Amino acid sequence: MPQAEHAGSRMQCEAPNVFVALGDSRGVRRAAVRVDGAPATVLPGTEHAAHPRGFHVGIAAADAGSARPLDVQVAIEIAGTGDLAFAPVGEATRVELASDWPHPSFAGRFLPLDRQVGEQGFSAQWKLNALATTAPQEAVDGAPACVFGDTPPETPSGRAHAHCVETFGVAFIDPVSPYTLSDRATKYGLLFIALTFVGVAAIEVLRCVRVHPIQYLLVGCAIAVFFLLLVSLSEHLSFGIAYLAASAACTALLAFYGRFVLRGTRAGLAFGSAIAVLYGVLCVLLLQLEQTALLLGSMLLFAVIGALMVTTRRIDWYARFTRMRRDAAPFDPAAT
C-alpha cells in the first residue's frame, strides 16, 4: 500500500481498472464480469498500451476504497480456439481446466501440477507464484506475451529473460484430421522406400534376376509420388477416399512395372500385393493408432528384417552373385 511522503498528508488513488488481455480476440463470443457478485459493464479494449486486445471493467470508487479485497469473476465464451494459454502475472496463480476434448497437448513454460487425460476428456491444474516466473516483471515492463509453446532462453545466470511474458496452457489437437494424417504418413515415406528396396533386393537375389539402379530409382520415385498424391487429393476429397485412390494407383503402377523388372507376371503380382499390404498396414495400424504408431512401425521393420534373415540364412552370397553375373542375359518382354 503506498504511503504518503509527509506526515499528516493524505494519498488518494484512482479507482483500479480490471482488464483481460487476449492475444487473439477474434474468437470471443461473449464476456461477462461480476464484481463482488454484481454484474459489471464490459467495455472493449484494455486501455493498456502493451496489450490492447481484450476488454476491461471500471471499478467504482466506493468499491475501490474498501479495505476488503475485491472478488472479480470473469466468464468468457470462446469459439474456434486451437490453443489456450495463460500468463501468470499475479503474486499467486492457480488455474484449473476441465474439458471433454480427449487429445490435449500441454505446452508453455510450466506443465500442469496434476493432470488426468482419458477418452471422455481431460482435467489439469497449475499452481504458481511470483517467485517461479518473471511474468509479473515483464508484464509491468510492457513486454508482449511469449509465443504459445515457446519458452524464453535461459541466461547464464539461470534467469529466463527474453522480454516476453511467460505463458502456459494447452492446445486442442485432432490426431486424425486429414492434415495430421497426411503429415504422419509422409514421415513414414523413408521407411516405405527402404522396405520396398529391401524386398526388391531380396527377390533379385532369390530369383537370380539383376535389377538396374535406374529401376530402383523409378520404384522409389513411384512410392514417393504416392505421398504427394495423398496430400493433394486429401485437399479435395475425404482422407479415406484420397488414401484409397493414391494407394490403388501406385500399387497398380508398381505391379505392372514389377512384371518387367522381376521378369515374370507372378513376380509382378506378388510385388504389387506386397506393396498393397504395406499401404494397408500404414493406414490401419500406423495412421489410426496414434499412441502406438512408433511401436508398431518398429515391430513391422523388425519383422521384415527378421524374415529376410531367416529366409536367406543358407545363401552363399559370393556364389549367388557370381552365378547372376554369369547367367545375365538380355530380357525379352515378349517372353512374359
Folded structure, characterized:
The protein is an alpha+beta fold. The chain has helices spanning 61-64, 135-140, 178-187, 189-206, 213-234, 239-261, 265-287, 293-311, 317-327; strands at residues 17-21, 28-35, 38-40, 43-44, 54-58, 72-78, 83-86, 92-99, 104-108, 114-118, 121-129, 168-172. The protein is built from nine helices and twelve strands. The strands form four sheets. A three-stranded antiparallel sheet has the order 1-5-4, with no helix packed on it. Strands 3-2-6 form a three-stranded antiparallel sheet, with no helix packed on it. Helix 3 packs antiparallel against helix 5 (213-234), helix 5 packs antiparallel against helix 6 (239-261) and helix 6 packs antiparallel against helix 7. The protein is elongated, with a radius of gyration of 32 Å.
Number of strands: 12
What proportion of the residues is helical, as a percent range? 40-55%
What's the average pLDDT? 79
Largest sheet: 3 strands, antiparallel
Through-space gap between termini: 95 Å
What's the helix-strand series? EEEEEHEEEEEEHEHHHHHHH
- Give the spatial strand order of the biggest sheet: 1-5-4
**Gyration radius, in Å:** 32 Å
As residue ranges, the low-confidence spans are: 155-161
Number of H- or I-type helical stretches:
9
Approximate shape: elongated
Structural class of the helix and strand makeup?
Answer: alpha+beta
| Strand residue percentage | 15-25%
